[in-house]
């Protein structure tokens, strides 16, 4: 178990569709432990495996006192009500933009025993579920911005110290 280093915007793993988890063994358990340890740090709501350099469909979430994970998650239901919510990302630090998200979301996947898991959330948890599934599909929240906001975000990204340390 360990807190893992994050991957940042520009790393190809963040734009790659993640592979399904097919082995439910000690290595997968270790990945889940690392996702849970890493998401528990203050100010973190969710963390997808690609954000720590692992191209597998797995994420962890932290909502108030609840910490959990889902393997092979699929977004199976979202509300029709969409709201623009301020959103940030651990892989795009120092920036935040309004992103249209459903106010309710349901994710289905499995746990470490390959048993079905369903996570349903509203508000911030709904936003987190959508955000983390996006990561597994090779999308960043920047991809969901309107043209003007995306242009602004990319310009600001290029001015950050973390961007230039990575490129």
From TrEMBL:
Gene3D superfamilies: Peptide deformylase. GO terms for biological process: translation. GO terms for molecular function: metal ion binding; peptide deformylase activity. Its cofactor is Fe(2+). The active site is at residue 132. Keywords: Hydrolase, Iron, Metal-binding, Protein biosynthesis. Binds 1 Fe(2+) ion. Its EC number is 3.5.1.88. The lineage of its organism: Bacteria, Bacillati, Actinomycetota, Actinomycetes, Pseudonocardiales. Belongs to the polypeptide deformylase family. InterPro entries: Peptide_deformylase (IPR023635), Peptide_deformylase_sf (IPR036821). Fe cation binds at residues 89, 131, 135. It comes from Haloechinothrix alba. This is Peptide deformylase. Removes the formyl group from the N-terminal Met of newly synthesized proteins. Requires at least a dipeptide for an efficient rate of reaction. N-terminal L-methionine is a prerequisite for activity but the enzyme has broad specificity at other positions. The gene is def. It catalyses: N-terminal N-formyl-L-methionyl-[peptide] + H2O = N-terminal L-methionyl-[peptide] + formate.
């Amino acid at each position: 178990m360990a807190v893992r280093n994050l991957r940042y915007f520009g790393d190809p793993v963040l734009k790659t569709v993640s592979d399904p988890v097919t082995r439910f063994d000690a290595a997968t358990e270790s990945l889940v432990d690392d996702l849970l340890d890493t998401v528990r740090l203050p100010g973190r709501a969710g963390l997808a495996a690609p954000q720590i350099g692992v191209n597998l469909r797995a994420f962890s979430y932290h909502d108030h006192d609840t910490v959990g994970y889902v393997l092979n998650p699929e977004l199976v239901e979202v509300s029709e009500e969409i709201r623009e919510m301020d959103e940030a990302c651990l892989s795009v630090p120092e920036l935040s933009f309004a992103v249209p998200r459903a106010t309710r979301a349901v994710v289905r996947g499995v746990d470490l025993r390959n048993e079905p898991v369903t996570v349903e959330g509203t508000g911030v948890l709904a936003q987190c579920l959508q955000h983390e599934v996006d990561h597994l599909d090779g999308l960043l929240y920047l991809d969901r911005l309107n043209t003007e906001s995306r242009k602004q975000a990319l310009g600001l990204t290029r001015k950050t110290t973390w961007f230039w340390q990575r490129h």
